[in-house]
Amino acid sequence: MTYQLRKATSLFSSLLLAGLLSSCGGGGSSNSSSADLCSTNSALCSVAGNGNGNNGSNGNNSGTGTPTGSTIGAPSVYANVCTPSVEKNWVRAHLNDVYLWYKQIVDVPPANYSTPQLYFDALLVKKNDRFSFTAPKDEIDGYFEAGEDVSFGYKLVNQNNQLRVTYVQPNSPADLQQIKRGAQIVGLNGTPIGQVGYDAQVAALYPTSSQTTTRFEIKDVGASATRIVEMKAATVVTQPVLQSKIITTAESRRLGYLVFTDHIATASDPLVNSLRNFKQQGIDDLVIDLRYNGGGYIYIANEVASMIAGSKAQGRVFEQLQYNDKHSDWTADSKFFFTNKSRSGQDLPQLNLSRVFVLTSARTCSASESIINGLSPFVQVITIGGTTCGKPYGFSQTDNCGTAYFAIEFDGINDAGKGGYVNGFAPTCPATDDLEHELGSLSERLLANAASYSKSGTCAPSGIAVPAAPFQINGTIIDPDPHPWRNNRIRK
Known about the structure:
Elements: H1 2-7, H2 10-26, H3 32-40, H4 42-48, H5 75-78, H6 84-98, H7 116-123, E1 133-136, H8 137-146, E2 148-151, E3 154-158, E4 163-168, H9 173-176, E5 184-188, E6 191-192, H10 198-205, E7 213-219, E8 227-232, E9 234-237, E10 241-248, E11 254-260, H11 268-281, E12 285-289, E13 295-297, H12 298-309, E14 317-322, H13 328-332, E15 335-337, E16 355-360, H14 367-375, E17 380-385, E18 393-394, E19 398-400, E20 403-406, E21 410-413, E22 429-430, H15 445-456, E23 488-490
Parallel strand pairs: 11-12, 12-16, 13-23, 16-17, 17-22
Antiparallel strand pairs: 1-20, 2-9, 3-4, 4-5, 5-6, 5-7, 7-8, 10-11, 14-15, 14-21, 18-21, 19-20
């Protein structure tokens, strides 16, 4: 793991920097020896506020405190020294080291930004990058390793200015209140949702504390009236494989159907068990529902693709990561191969499929797109739904002072050398999401299209429909989910 290698020097660097800052006057004293040390460690003393470094653009001393050129230094020099000025210098050094577009960064004065996280965001090359982000380390670790997340347990989508539920996690507060797919949220805490401001919507819909309670007005699918539901947030344990079953169509075709929502560590075992069952029971086609899967760990995507493709792809490249020109060694050492073993060492069932159906939407992102791209040289991938999000990039988690930083570090290509799908993968068979029917129902539009193609070998005549308008809303509804870490490709 590249980010672990970078972490390895952090303690030594922190101790070293603490001593140097004290010598440079960071501890409040000054003498001739500190002046001598500062003259040879200008970047460090610039951090401490002595103003002895070349901080202006193009190496000129503008007095802005903006580190450029030789003053940027190595991130290890500043790591885990948790004062705002030093953290900002770590941010600049980190981006200068690993960021895929480090040459295009436009420097800005760090003093203009109140936190290191805001400074990080200001340095990103936004014309290329809509994905880099920061988040509290504990929040990230809890979610990607254990699937734990403080929430009400639903996932929402803004469909024609109607905020609707796409699915609900089992045993969550939403599940206990019998909220189902397709339900519309029409009011929050006694106020019509269209009259609730953006920040208030986020706070009410996406709690950050288990002490948060929100009163919802809900209109269920098929109901003639709304109902009031009060929910208290809880730590919800995500079930990343929501459904795994074999569906028999009217034509007696057996479809293995899998709803896979998150590439998190706890997904590996249920994915392996599901695909092993499909192999043992026998299926005519596999339908993997990734329409709400924003990505996660690459190794999980690698395992899924390896089981689908089977022995014909064994040992071939699933994904080659490509870093910036400072890290050609990382690039050379960053190939994910199709395999018959999981990361934990268990045997992966080999389905050896010639084709696979993938249900997609604009929320099919990153590691989910890796499955599509990685399989395409070996398996016919038939996508049904909407164009995917278009994120051929990824990163490693790098922690500093309690914050997890995710700066885009690499892009990925498949065995045929293809990647760069910044506009997403257009669907083989376009179809609009169908919130009027439950996932796994052959009446649900995307799955019905897959079943039709499985029989006929062609797209259904029309998969496009105008969504129903169960309750008219006046005002603006947010476009959730305000959690950027759900749309990612993470190397671990």
